[in-house]
Each structure stands twice: as structure tokens, then as C-alpha cells.
Amino acid sequence: MSEPVTALNNTSDATGIAAVSEIGPVGMITLRGDLNASYLRKAAAQIAGVDVPAPLGCNSSDNRGIAWMSPDELLVMCPYAEAGETVEKLEKAIGSNFATAANVSDGRAVFRVSGPLAREVMAKLSPVDLDPAIFKPGMFRRTRLAQVPAAFWMTDDETFQIFCFRSVAQYVFDVLKVAAQSGSAVGHFPLAEGQSANT
Amino acid sequence: MLVLTCHACGVTAEETEFHAGGEAHLKRFGPGSSETDFEGYLFMRDNPKGVHFERWRHVYGCGKWFHVARDTMTLEVFGSYSAQTYTPPDDLIAQIEDKRPDWTRKAATA
Predict the structure, then answer these.
(1) Of A124, A152, B3, B29, whose CB has the highest number of CB atoms within 10 Å?
(2) C-beta atoms of A71 and B14 within 8 A
(3) Chain B closest CA to A139's CA: distance in Å?
């Protein structure tokens, strides 16, 4: 196999109020079908090592996870090198049932925004209520970042993981960098106790 | 700005996350229909001042279609309901009739 290359060579920027970096490559498999079917739930949970999340949720650990994309779609995440065999495993589990698994790892770019002010950076770009009382780690949201579709979830209280189409990776990185430029803190969300932010 | 709730995934978001799909509950007139019916199906749309039923798609989210009942003048949103239906649910109609005593739902026509 040839060496996988991410869209932006895992470039990063830590000069602003939150650190922005491209991470990856990440193995991503789109799984579509009846999400209540046990053959699908069991196979996905076994591969990802986490339970199938409730609607609008994402369960993740280290480099594996499952995200709820829509009422008939899941995204299974795994190490990049395992994506191929994971699709085969899923297809075997699906058998003759009406469902599909597709490896979409190379079509996406993955970013991480981290720091006490990560919420502010994301709130500047997407029409989502990111109040700490409303949007919490474990929740998953497909939405837009400025002008392009993207999806994100929080792996912990100050880390967002974002994915978007690979073709708009440069745009997303640039727009995140602008939203995180130093001196641009708004101070809208209260910081958790003991947190201090480099504004 | 409209704030809509997607009936398919339950997300409540403002209108830029959605895409409007025009008037809802049109009856299709296809091959074999009269020219007037076909023209009506293709081009004739209601443009009411007040209660309106529309199709919307959660284009940046789950990607599903759903229906919305709203007021085109006040922008009040009465509710959203499944795309897999030919008519608005009765409880939604009752709720709209409560709020807009002058309004009656017109019979489904072309």
C-alpha cells in the first residue's frame, strides 16, 4: 500500500486563543441501514469498542468511535490501516440484509481545536448553541463551519474534533485559524473553575 | 430568522442549516393528465399571507426532508412533521386554528 497523506500534512497552529491542528489519517466507515437492527449494532459496537450512541451522540475512545449521523447512518471510526478489513467485517455481519458499509477515510479531513476557549472558536463559525450547559462532551452535531458542511463532537470539556470533506480542508483550517487568532476572545462562555485562558 | 426543528433528527437550528423546498402537499399530475392540471402542478403555487405549509430539508445536518407549518407574515413556526404524509397532522391543524381563528385549510387541489 502507498503511504496515506492527509489533506494538509497535519499542519497546526497554536499562536491563537486555541490550538488548531489537522489530525489523521483516521479510518472512517459510513454505515447505512436500519440502526435498530441487531446485526448492525453488534458489528459496529464490536469493531469500535464502544456502544452505538443514542441519536445525536458520539461515543469515542482514543482512536475508535461511533458517531450518529442521521436516523439511518452511523460513522464508524478506527485506525486508518484497519479501515479496509473493517469494511469486510461489517459486510460479513450485514450479509444479505439491506445495509451498506463504505470506506470514506480518504474523502475526509479531521481537525482538532483545543484549549479553554475552544468553545468560542467553534461558536464563531457554526449556528449551534455551544453553551457548556447545552452542548456537552459525547454530543455530536452535523452542521456547517462558516460556509461548508462539517461535523464535530467534544472528546472532553475543551477539545473539539471536527471532520469535513477533504476538498475543503484548507478552507476549514484557515477559517478555524482566523476564528482562533490571538486577541479575538469574546468571553461569552464562562470558563470552568480553575481554568485560565490565553486571550 | 426562522428557528426550525428537524422532524427526522430532532435538532433545533436556525434556517441557514436548512434549505427550503417550496410548497408542501402538492398533488402530482404526470403523463396522461390534462394540460391545465400539468401546468398547475409544475408552476402554480400558493403565496399566502399567513399560514403556509412547506417542505424543508436539513441540508447541513441529517439530510432528511420534513414538513413545516409556519406563518409567512409573522414568521411564527407552528410545528414540523414527517415528510411521509399527504396531509398535516390533525393536532397541528387544531393548534393553528386555535391561534388563527380566521384561517381554514383549503381543500387539497392542484
Answers:
(1) A152
(2) no
(3) 12
Whether the bond between A25 and the residue before it is cis, its omega within 30 degrees of 0, is yes
Q: Which residues of B touch A141 (CB under 8 A)?
A: 11, 61
Q: Which of A72, A106, A140 is the last residue of a domain?
A: A106
Q: Which of B62, B65, B66, B82 to mutate to test the interface with A (most CBs of A within 10 A)?
A: B62
What residue segments make up the domains of chain B, in order of their start? 1-24+49-110
> Do A116 and A18 lie in a common domain?
yes
CATH no., domain B1-24+49-110? 3.30.2270.10
Inter-CA distances, A22 with A11, A92, A140, A176, B90, Å: 6, 33, 19, 11, 50
pLDDT at A150 over 50: yes
Q: ipTM for the complex? A: 0.86
Mean pLDDT throughout A2-22?
93
At A99-137, the pLDDT tens digits run: 999 999 999 999 999 999 999 999 999 999 999 999 999
Contact B10 A141 (CB under 8 A): no
Residue A62 domain boundaries: 26-106
Q: Do B17 and A144 touch (CB under 8 A)?
A: yes
Closest to B24 in 3D by CA, of B67, B80, B77:
B67
Do A49 and A19 belong to one domain?
A: no
Do A67 and A128 lie in one domain? The reply is no
